[in-house]
Amino acid sequence: MSARAAKAEHAAADFVRLTDVIKRFGSAPPALDGIEGRIRGGEITGLVGPDGAGKTTLIRLMTGLMLPDSGTIEVLGFDTRQNPTAIQAAIGYMPQRFGLYEDLSVQENLDLYADLRGLPKAERPAVYDELLTFTDLKRFTGRLAGKLSGGMKQKLGLACALLKKPRLLLLDEPGVGVDPISRRDLWKMVEDLTREGIGVVWSTAYLDEAEMCDNVFLLNQGKLLFTGPPAGLTSRVDDRVFKLTGLTGRRRPILAKTLELSGVIDGVIQGEAIRLVLAPGAKSPVETEIGSKLRLVPATPRFEDAFVDMLGGGPGGWSKLADATTKLPSDGGRPVIVAHGLTKRFGDFTAADDITFEIPRGEIFGLLGPNGAGKSTTFKMLCGLLKPTEGEGRVAGFDLRRDTAEARNRLGYMAQKFSLYGDLSIAQNLAFFAGVYGLNGRRKRERIALMTEIFEFAPHADMSAKDLPLGLKQRLALACAVMHEPEALFLDEPTSGVDPIMRREFWTHINGLVEKGVTVLVTTHFMEEAEYCDRISLIYRGRSIALGSPDELKARVASKDNPDPTMEDAFITLVQESEAEAVTA
Amino acid sequence: MSDSRRLDRVRRLAALVRKETYQVIRDPSSILIAFVLPLILLFLFGYGVSLDATRTRIGLVVEDPTPVTRDLAASFQASRYFEVVNGNDRREFEEDLITSRVRGIVVIPATFAADYAAGTSPAIQVIVDGSDPNTASFVQNYARGVVANWAALRGADAAARPPAISVEQRFWFNPQLTSRFFLVPGSIAIVMTLVGTLLTSLVVAREWERGTMEAIMATPVTAAELLIGKILPYFILGLASMTLCMLLAIFLFGVPFRGSILALYALSASFLVPALGQGLLISAATKNQFLASQLALLSAFLPAFLLSGFLFEINSMPTVIQWITTVVPARYFISSLQTVFLAGDIWPLFLQAIAVMLLIGAVFFALAARSTRKRIG
């Protein structure tokens, strides 16, 4: 039987039936609100949405480890309320951190899960052999799971979930924190499984992953926005997505201007070009209003374009924050941020190896790489939080080792996951960070008042930061980082997990600030976000393996088979090239 | 079919126990809590802490020097419990008492000699610092002892006079009243509280934090298997840790061991039931290691220390506190430990203690089992 035929045959069966599922936690708005849908065998079904959308809750409900407040969930014919045991015997589940015992070796983890799942001893050698080959972990059976790389952990987690061949495989954000190569490998493995008729649920916050699924559930704040094949969603923006090319000079002011035009729903920087989504029926107003040298070429709609469209379009391009920022004088092209041979070793582990780059004023520079690659280490050395083993870093001309205080006063730092004081209110957080950055007296009051006005904090000023919705947290974190008008802004994974609207709002401010002469260093593992940068450095296993503008890097890997590679294609090819070099050297 | 199902069950349980054992062996923090901390505690109580006060400094005021009072003063000076500073007026020592340069003032009043001669019971005054009750009562009791001794000796000297009733103290089981002999066995209870309650609650909370609990819950494993899979390894670890303490107590600290090994293990095993039950209950209530450790320290470790009769006599506690101590399992364990080491096997006493500990344990387990279902959140 051909794979496609097998797929078609299994596709008939509903593996999961969700009927008006509602789940609340405490008094907050429901985590899941009236979810309806079907998940079929032999397919990859994506649960797609930003953090807090309800993806994990929905998966947990399917495992029977959590029960809905109302509505029913039927998994493989069993109701999760009545018969969770039967469900748990027939599914494979990989929770977010893979569910591995770090003190146990690869083999011991497999043995444990084989025993728990009741895999007969006689079958084990064959199954182990198959799974270890499949995951390419054969050489590492004796290694402790805690000592594996993120990608290897993910594969081992998958192997553990597959020991007793499940009919339904539930994967909760398997792509998070894993390098793109492992992510792609995993995807291929999962695709193979669907050919055997296994149903796969893959939750993700990456919208590019959504595009590859057979079916998606698009969730936002507990609501199901869309269910069906992803093409069904992207088709809503068919013929409305364009690339604005032929830009010369600075393209961010053009983006800002374009976003303010009526008829433009969404726009982002994409390398040298600007990607635009127009309103239905809007007759590309761009050429006439922006300039005649520009060309508007149709582009293939992406899932993200459709998602933004569905949420009612992105914010405008005008940043009140940038307006209130005084323009920094240009100073003859002297770089604002300098990393020179930065190296950090922890014991015999080199977390960052000879990282070198210079960022001129008004540029956005990105460090792109998977978790654990050394981005955050490099980052922390440059803002004076970590002492380099070798090399030096300078911010605004100050050496970070000798003039730490001066250097720090000129930089604003926005940490991963918005490290705010959760028990302090918005006003208290602002006052605290103003104090930390040395503002006082009238200036402090003025800046706090300004931030409160720009980001519209007033109605929430007394709320504890930890109770704020994600979008407000992001605004507050940004406000705290820019309150003292820093020359350089350090953003560590600034938009991970937020929805695309919030990400656009955030970048509108950053784009505006950059036009005022602020220099930005940003770390990200979002390939799309990397394209908002002027230049990026690809960080992999502690080293910078490539540096250039997004378009340059993409062009470097373009080939006959793949004339228009994505950022992810570029990353993967460049990593493979650098590894091949390492082998020959 | 049911045979293979039973086999599956046994295999799952064995797998959980094996996993836990590997983790204990490989995780330095478990070894720290189960073996290193006990050593530190034992050494602390064996060598560092002693409740025997020797040579306490007191101020001795003889208001009217007569042969009789001088003789009594000499008795105080000769006592090996006191270091005496002489004076004529209690006011000389007031400042010293406040600043703790002396721990008490003993006043032999001007009327002492006359009262003594008249045969009425002569009184002395002992002024102590009530803010340090332990030392205060020590000074008070020993001062009284010195006077009683002195009176008895004088009585014997002056054979004409019928000797006053003399109280002869004899301490059984621990004739030298060496505090180490009851502190070291008692600290075994503290150690087992650490392993049973603190370590257990920590390892369960850790599974929640690392997401492994969620992963194994989504397998066919049952809640009971999960529970037993946690209890068994730490039960054995607790007994191992107790064995280490026992050997050190006997061979290093020279604590006499007059009971039987059987009794010691029976008591320890029974104590582990409430200790583990409490640990599981804590981890069911909190899924975070920090909170679990705080709760374990507050609800198990401190009571085992303070409300068990380990350091402080239960009989001298306020009534309400005494009631509270009845639900502290360590209370029964510590008194039994002291008995099994210093006195010997007194089974009626042990059986009673075992019964109470098991009862408390049963309550903890019932509560823990009720809250340990295969559910998240």
TrEMBL record, chain A:
Q: Which domain of life is it from?
A: Bacteria
**Keywords per UniProt:** ATP-binding, Nucleotide-binding
Task: Give the matching SMART domains.
Answer: AAA
InterPro entries in the cross-refs: AAA+_ATPase, ABC_transporter-like_ATP-bd, ABC_transporter-like_CS, P-loop_NTPase
What protein name is recorded for this chain?
ABC transporter ATP-binding protein
Which residue intervals define the domain ABC transporter in the entry? 16-246, 337-566
Q: Which organism is it from?
A: Phyllobacterium salinisoli
Please report a single Pfam family linked to this protein. Answer: ABC_tran
Under the heading Gene3D superfamilies, the entry gives: P-loop containing nucleotide triphosphate hydrolases
This protein's record includes keyword Nucleotide-binding: yes
Q: A Gene Ontology molecular-function term?
A: ATP hydrolysis activity
- Keyword Nucleotide-binding in annotation: yes
The family classification in the record reads:
Belongs to the ABC transporter superfamily.
From TrEMBL, chain B:
- Spell out the GO cellular component terms annotated for this protein, sorted alphabetically and separated by semicolons: plasma membrane
Q: State its location(s).
A: Cell membrane
What stretches pass through the bilayer?
A: 31-49, 181-204, 231-255, 262-285, 291-311, 349-369
Where does this protein chiefly localize? membrane
Q: Which Gene3D superfamilies would you find in this protein's record?
A: abc type-2 transporter like domain
**What does the sequence similarity comment in the record state about its family?**
Belongs to the ABC-2 integral membrane protein family.
Q: What name does the UniProt record give this protein?
A: ABC transporter permease
Q: To which species is this protein native?
A: Phyllobacterium salinisoli
